[in-house]
Amino acid sequence: MSAQVLPLITAADLEAMPDDGKTYEIFEGELFMSRAPNLSHQNTIGNFYFQLRGFLLRVPLGQVFFTPGVIFDDLNSAIPDVAFVTNESMFIVADGKHIHGAPELLIEVISPGAENRRRDQVVKRQTYAKFGVKEYWIADAENRTIEVYRLRDGLLDLIAILTARDELTTPLLPDFSCRVTDIF
Question: Closest Cα partner for 30 from 14, 12, 9?
């Protein structure tokens, strides 16, 4: 008996799918679907965007995007909750519709469920590292923590798990700082 092999989904296949209100991503050609985020999830995304956007208005190092489509290659396409792209990278990776390539920073807010947690902490982290994302933050609204990963030797290594009493900073944005309580 042979194992059934499903066809690989490409970024072009994903682009051709009808808009049904769900979020679809592909990692190594495997299709992943998510429902619309709940209000707490959306609020957390908004707080990240607000903090980063406010900083970038004062210090214009790049642009922050809210749920952009990021196409890494034909078999890997994601819709992270928030992305930061430097001015230098903007002309290389952004085409006005999607980001093609690795943003400097990607942020995901974990949706409820073990599969969502595994996808954000394992599948997405490995994919983002493979394509050179320099920093990856995973926010857990339920536990009110932010995991900070930085690219080192081709891997996104866990640098810190921040809690309510901590400040969120990054070398990608010198002088940027916000309290974790400002996110949750």
Answer: 9
What integer best gives the mean pLDDT of the chain? 93
- At 56, which helix (H) or strand (E)? helix 39-58
91 is written with which tokens? 């002309």
Q: Which helix (H) or strand (E) holds 168?
A: strand 167-168
DSSP 65-87: EES--EEEETTEEE--SEEEEEH
Per-residue model confidence as pLDDT tens digits over 130-160: 999 999 999 999 999 999 999 999 999 999 9
- The whole-angstrom separation of Cα 77 and Cα 10 is 8
Each domain of the chain, given as residue ranges in start order, spans 11-183
State how far the Cα of 20 lies from the Cα of 180, in Å rounded to an integer.
34
90 and 75 Cβ atoms separated by less than 8 Å? no
Q: Which residues of 107-144 are buried (b: 16+ CB within 10 A; e: fewer)?
A: bbbbbeeeebeebbbebbbebbbbeebbbbbbbbbeee
Which CATH code for domain 11-183?
A: 3.90.1570.10
The answer to whether 146 and 162 have CB atoms below 8 angstroms apart is yes
Q: Is this structure's pTM higher than 0.85?
A: yes
